[in-house]
Amino acid sequence: MKANKEIKRLFVGGLGQSISEADLQNQFSRFGEVSDVEIITRKDDKGNPQKVFAYINIKVAEADLKKCMSVLNKTKWKGGTLQIQLAKESFLHRLAQEREEAKAKKEKSTTGSTSLLEKMGVVDFHVKAVPGTEVPGHKNWVVSKFGRVLPVLHLKNQQKRKIIKYDPSKYCHNLKKVGEDFTNAIPISNLTWELEGGNDPMSKKRRGEFSDFHSPPKKTAKVQKNEGPTAPLATRPKPSGVTESPHLPKQRAAQKTPRDPIALKLPRVPDSRSPKLKNVFFQTSSLETAKNRNSMSDDDIDSEDELRLMIAREENLEKTAWSSVNESENDPFEVVRDDFKSDFHRFHTARGVGIKNKVSCLDSEDNVGNDCDSDSGDTDEIIAMKKNANEVRNSIDLSQMEKSVHKETSLKNRKICDLSENCVKVQKGKNEVEIAVSHRVKSPSCKSLADSRSSGDADSVSESIQSEGDTEYNTMMKNCLRVNLTLADLEQLAGSNQEAPKEDTESSGQEAPAKCDKASNSHRTPGGHRKGRQCIHPEEIVASLLEGKEDTHGKQKPKENNLKPKFQAFKGVGCLYGKESVKQSSKEDVAYNNVNNDHNSLKLEDPRSMSMEKCSPFANGSSSELTHFQHGKKANNSKQIQPRKRQSTFESQGHRVVSPSSSEEGSRNSSLLLQKGKKSLSLAAKTPRRSSDEGCCHRTGKSGEDSEKRPDLSIPKAPEKSAGVSSRRDTRGSKTDFPLSVTSSSDVSAKDKHAEDNQKRLAALEARQKAKEVQKKLVHNALANLDGHPEDKPTHIIFGSNSESEAEETSTQEHSHAGEEAVKESMGRASGKLFDSSDDEESVSEDDSNRFRIKPQFEGKAGQKLMDLQSHFGTDDRFRMDSRFLESDSEEEQEEINEKKTAEEEELAAEKQKALNVVQSVLHDNLISSTSKGSVAAKKFKDIIRYDPTRHDHASYERKGDDKSKESKAKRKKKREEAEKLPEVSKEMYYNIATDLKQIFQTTKDASEKKDNRPWNEDSDGEKAEEFQDPAAPMTGDEQPSGFTFSFFDSDAKDVKEETYRVETVKPGKIAWQGDPRFQDSSSEEEDDTEETDDKKPSPEEVSSPEKQTTRFFFFSKNDERLHGSDLFWRGVGSNVSRSSWEARTNNLRMDCRKKHKDAKRRVKPK
Amino acid sequence: MRPLTEEETRVMFEKIAKYIGENLQLLVDRPDGTYCFRLHNDRVYYVSEKILKLAANISGDKLVSLGTCFGKFTKTHKFRLHITALDYLAPYAKYKVWIKPGAEQSFLYGNHVLKSGLGRITENTSQYQGVVVYSMADIPLVHIV
After folding, report:
1. What CA–CA distances, in Å, run from A767 to A689, A784, A819, B127?
2. Residues contacting residue A662 through CB under 8 Å, at least 6 positions apart
3. Which of A250, A382, A841, A1050 has the fewest CB atoms within 10 Å distance of its CB?
4. Per the database record, which ranges form the 60S ribosome subunit biogenesis protein NIP7 pre-PUA domain (chain B) (predicted)?
5. Are A1060 and A1036 in contact (CB under 8 A)?
6. What is the pLDDT along chain B (145 residues), one digit of tens a residue?
7. Taking CB atoms and an 8 Å cutoff, what residues of chain B touch A1081?
């Protein structure tokens, strides 16, 4: 039964809300072991439980399960109907299970995959199989196109309902193999912390695994190196070489990993060898095989020989030649390059020595002794460096990529360094250095460590080493492309070095350590340099602040960043060291270890820090490690001060040398100059020269490195940065050096530096501002002077003393320099020149000053006018024009303004006028009466205005009326005069009218009257009327004689009018009807009416009495139209034509009526 | 933008005078302010002095229009009235035609005014006289020759 029992997951639905897990457990425990109960309550939006269900993991047999289902399913229990179903396994459970399965599978596959395949006969299937062949024993499995066994798939097309057979043998498959080993998936919690990967250094670093404890072996190595020379130096390298040589073949045979100590051992071989090995390793990189190693060994030997040769050459030739030779050579050349590095180191040491000699170091030893010492020390250090470097590099070989990069960079750096150093050397012309180098190369072993430990020598050596280390560091950094970090690292290293000195002071007491200390001191000096230079950086400050452990931590960080790969290598080195130490020197090892321990205890509390320091040197190169160690160990304040001094001197020298040589330095100089400027601005006390010197000095030290870095990097950014850094360093270094020398403690100095840095920055900003201000002032003054000069020029005619003029001249010269003074002087000039009397001068100066003041009375436009006025009359007071003269002007001005304003309006008005003219012309063309109508329109417009007798404006209207009345009076007089004569005539007319009536009735005079009418209608213009009437008069024979007596024309008109009047009386209705339309139009004919009236008055023939005339006049003036109406009337009634036509028409009408009548009758009849 | 030349003014006034006759003078010489005609992009704008000053601030190539467009000069220097001038022509129009409401829409859609659609017409309207067409509600619709 037990076997049948399986863990099932049951879904129990329809539970009551009050159900608890315990209840369920009890309920189901009847059927099996309830392992887990999970009650889930579904709630609606408002939180009211809607349904409750549970999942139960139960270990139950199949039968029990069925029983359970049948018993409990759909039963009521605790307020709910149970509903039991088998549920899927919980997700987590399934996942775990799957993983387990997968694991098991994997194990199976790994262990028995081959066997399985063999079993299935598929072992060779990949080889044999032709695509499309079925896998025996497996249905639908086919060998696909590329030899993999894949299943034949039957895919259903969703849209077409068609099942497609996918035969992998016929298609290029895109199948992805899902990773089998997701069971190996690292738990999420570990994901971020553990990086999978191999054992290679990169991955280790990535994982954050660093070899912490490399320091002791290194120390031992160092100690060995250091102390080795004290004992038999010569023996030491040799045995190492011997030991290494056997090791090497072994390693080669075994083809051990690059970490193998073999590489480390190799470097132990004399200095020349070690660099060579390094080079070889670098070049070979990942592809290094046993052959390479063999060749490397050969190369090593060769390289040694070559190195010696090279050294000899060096003695004779300049370093440039070396570099060329080295370059010319191939692999060995590369080795040579490494040697060159060593050479460089030597050079550095030599340099340092030379510097020491020149500077007259504090050391009491002679130059020669120093040289020798330095040589020995250098050699020892170099050896150590080489060893370290070699080891490091060998270890690094594993990480070939990095190595290759390192190689390139290092090579470049070396070359550059060589060149620069060569140049320096050449310039210095130090034979001693070269000799020392040669000595070193020739007999590194022979040199006594004790000699080397002479402090001065050690210092020099350390400096050189440090410089090398720095260069290497830089190169490394460059390789990493983290220039900034490298700088920071360097700074941190410097900080560590600084820390070391403190401890060193303690350690100095011991002899063995003392040696190391000395060496370290020597190293330290560079460290001091670095400090001086780099302390400026905030990182450095931080490093300095973090002392001891913190320092180490700080170092570790940068190291980790940049030197992680190196760390691994370092580990290897450490191992190697350990091995070496064990193998090589059994005696010394113990002592060394002791010494190392002592060193550790004395120097640094933390081995870590040591290791860190070592690591950092590793990164830089083994040499750097040594130096760092020493730095860390040794630190005497006095020594520090000394190195600093040396630095300054050295730097100054180097600067001198470098400045002429390289353009880069020139750029640096420029930057330095800028900085100098800043400094000068900020620090008034400092003379520019001094600042420049300081800058140069500091610069040189770093510039050398920078220059080396620059060419190495070949990246534009890097050089810029370096330049910037160098400049900063220089400035800071200069600043720091002085204050630091005063301050004994490095920490304080560092802090001070930090503070100083900030202050400097602020000061620099201020200085810039000041400079700007000064520039502004200068410009200002210059301009002012320019302005002032013309004033002064007239004063150039000098009657006064010569001294003043001289002073003026000097002032002019000074103008460029100090504007303010110039101004003052110019003022003085102005005062001094024309007249000797001081009063006059003052007045003149006042005048000058006043002349260009804006005088209040000249402000504004009025002022301008006044100016103009005055300018017309000269400046003589007697004729000076006051503002009194301006008053009229102001009015004019206003007028002008108004004119200006109106100008536009005028333009518009003119335009309007034009338009109006055009309108006139246009209207003329279109309508004859348009002109008069225009006036009418105007009149209309005026009419709209209400006449107000009280207003004067409206007097015009009154006037018009008056004029009319006057005119009318005048006319009346005339009329009266005429009228006096007229009355008789009027009577006659009366009669005439009667006759006319008769005629009308008789229709005898119709024709004549018609003719009269026609002209009259057209005679709105008097002249025309005359013309027309002239012919008309003769026609009407009766009337003409009557009117002829007085005036030819008037009589006719009179007659006509009389007639019309009569007519009107006769048929008023018709007249009114016809007259109306004309009436409105004829308003314009008023004038004509008056004329007509005039005409009528003189007419003697008129019978109408003066009374009648007046009435007529009044009548006519009002109703001119009636005349027309009468005409029309006449036309209609009086004309024969019309009558005849009317008769004809009536006849026609009658006829029509009759016809129609008849037609209608006819129509009616038939109907 | 420039004032009209003599010839242009003449041509334009002749055209306008067809509709408003001597009332043209009222357009040119307005009692309520100075108005003038300006030519811009071959179009004639009737502008008040105020707007003219404002428009002077705008460069010619950027100026789209100002005031009221009265019409445009064709390439052959004839003048075509635009409908925008209706606002100024309608009040002064001498001859008017009123259209019955039923014919109004048809007319506005471009059809002719049939005799049946003619509601009123100014007397003495001669042939080829420029008229302004009104709806019976005295809303000016169009000016037609």
Report:
1. 17, 24, 18, 94
2. A420, A423, A707
3. A250
4. 1-83
5. no
6. 888 888 888 888 888 888 888 888 888 888 888 888 889 888 999 988 888 888 888 888 888 989 899 999 999 989 999 999 888 888 888 888 888 888 888 888 988 888 888 888 888 888 888 888 888 888 888 877 7
7. none
Q: How many CB atoms lie within 10 A of CB A308?
A: 16
Instruction: Measure Cα distances from A320 to A417, A538, A1094 in Å.
Output: 11, 38, 136
Cβ–Cβ of B22/A915 closer than 8 Å? no
pLDDT of residue B61: 87
**Model pTM score:** 0.24
For A316, how many CA atoms within 13 A lie in the half-sphere containing its CB? 5
Torsion of CA A347, A348, A353, A358, to 10 degrees: 100
Please check whether residue B80 touches A, CB under 8 A.
no
Torsion of CA B84, B85, B90, B96, to 10 degrees: -90
Q: How far apart are CA A487 and CA A397, in angstroms?
A: 25
SS3 readout for A31-44: CEEEEEEEEEEEEC
Question: Please, which residues have CB within 8 angstroms of residue A36's CB and are 6 or more apart in sequence?
Answer: A55, A56, A57
pLDDT at A177 over 50: yes
For the residues A130-136, what does the mean pLDDT come to?
75
Cα–Cα distances in Å, from A904 out to A427, B6, B60, B134?
86, 19, 19, 39
Cβ <8 Å between B21 and A919: no
Whole-Å CA distances, A259 to A216, A299, A638, A1115, A1137:
18, 20, 41, 145, 149
Number of neighbouring beta carbons within 10 Å of residue A220: 29
Separation CA A247–CA A970 (nearest Å): 156
Q: How much helix, strand and coil, in percent to the nearest 5, is found in chain A? A: 75, 5, 20
More confident of the two residues A52 and B145: A52
Q: Among A410-419, A465-474, A838-847, A1035-1044, name the most confident range.
A: A838-847
Residue A24 above 60 pLDDT? yes
Q: In DSSP terms, which residues pair with B121 in a beta bridge? A: B97
CB-nearest to B10 from A904, A905, A918 is A918
Both tokens of residue A797? Answer: 């005619």
| Phi, psi dihedral angles at B119 (to 5 degrees) | -85, -50
Q: Can you tell me the ipTM of this complex? A: 0.74
- What is the rounded CA–CA span in Å between residue A610 and residue A629? 7
Distance from CA of A909 to the nearest CA of B (A): 8
Q: B99 - beta bridge partners?
A: B118, B135
Q: Which two tokens mark A262?
A: 């073999």
Nearest to B36 among A908, A918, A923 (CB): A908
What single string gives the DSSP state of each residue in A56-92?
Answer: EEEEE-HHHHHHHHHHHTT-B-SSSB-EEEE-PPPHH
Distance CA A6, CA A200 (A): 47
More confident: A71 or A633:
A71
Q: Do B6 and A918 touch (CB under 8 A)?
A: yes
Strand runs labelled E in chain B: 2-3, 35-40, 43-48, 68-73, 79-81, 96-99, 118-121, 131-135, 140-144
C-alpha torsion A330→A278→A445→A611, nearest 10: 160
